[in-house]
Fold this sequence. Notes:
The chain has helices at 4-23, 27-47, 52-63, 69-86, 108-133, 136-139, 148-184, 194-202, 227-237, 242-279, 286-310, 315-329, 331-339, 345-364, 368-373, 393-410, and strands spanning 207-209, 223-225. With 424 residues, it is mostly helical.
Amino acid sequence: LASPAEYQVVAAYLERARDYEARLQNVDVALEDERVAIRERIRVLRAKNADVGLIVAASRELAALPRDAAAARERWTRLMQENYERAQPLGGLPPHSHAYAGYPDGTPEEQQAYTDSRRNFLALMFCLMVGTAGLPHLLMRYYTSPTVAGARASVAWSLFFIALLYLSAPALAVLVKFEVMNNLVGSHFDALPNWIAQWARVDASLLSIEDMNGDGIVQFGEIHLGADLIMLATPELGGLPYVVSGLVAAGGLAAALSTADGLLLTISNALVRDLYFQARPRNASPEQRVILTKFTLLAVALAAAFVAALKPSDILPLVSASFSLAASAFVPVMVLGIFWRGTTRQGAVAGMLCGLGLAAYYMLSHVPSLRATLPHWLLADGLWFGIQPISAGVFGVPAGLVSAALVSWLTRPPPLRPPVRLEM
């Protein structure tokens, strides 16, 4: 933090962010000026019979410009925010000795940042733990146990491995930060490891190291290591061969396919058996039911692949959203159904709809594209208690519990009267 070179990097990012902010003042004019400048550069290079590589690079730069003002505004806004974040000390990360961002005894802004960071951390942990208990593809695995004792043992083992996974994540973060600080920071740009160039060619948005201050030495603020790449790049960051990264990638892909398989089976069975055949009884053979289930599974898989190809968000928000939605929709009804005999069918449905609806509403209200198109009175007004949208389960779970209990109390059947004995 006290290095003069780090201050130079921060100043360079701040200058770049202000440049994007100035472009956003008049997007149409700024976009046209940039097009004209690049075309003029290409004309000058051709007039001077410059190297073909320079002309091709300038032509690619011209083709990479946003197509219209709306695309330019979206890209420049994102780049402005990214550069402002990287202009902060340690790239916006909290100091190594602090558990949360901000300072509890600092300025009012630092105290608020500390409070919001701690609150969001606890909210995310709540959503992850409660959401794990409500994931449908995990619940169906317990049906494979033939005995009650076996189901309890499987629950104990699953809790052990889930706790091991969650506890290993902070340790991995500490090890990655240690390797970056000791092996990358302070090295020369002409002596960088080969794996950096290899991963940068795969996706430059996930890994990039740019000499912002021009001193030829890597500073911490010049390293951009995407969250989606940390797990894959960690073996090579620690000096292990590339084959270990391949094994990690294979393990992650196998886990993703296994999870997707369980979710697809659950969704297709719910749509076909619980909705299609239960809503209106139909005479269908078991073979016809299986065929319809397989076609439904294929349709759901194609729809999921189409949404994934659009890349609407990063992996972390999408995964966290699934835990929040599962916690809001299923956990309140499960808890009441197990521990309260007064839970009714109407109450369970109301709890699922209310919890899921509130969590989805809070998430969708903070999607930039929806906020730009829908009226403001229809969306949530800012963050509730400073909670980020990925932790919407902290609102959905209580709403589901209250609504399920209230509707169950209102729709409970009248108590059965004891039989009257007639004595002759």
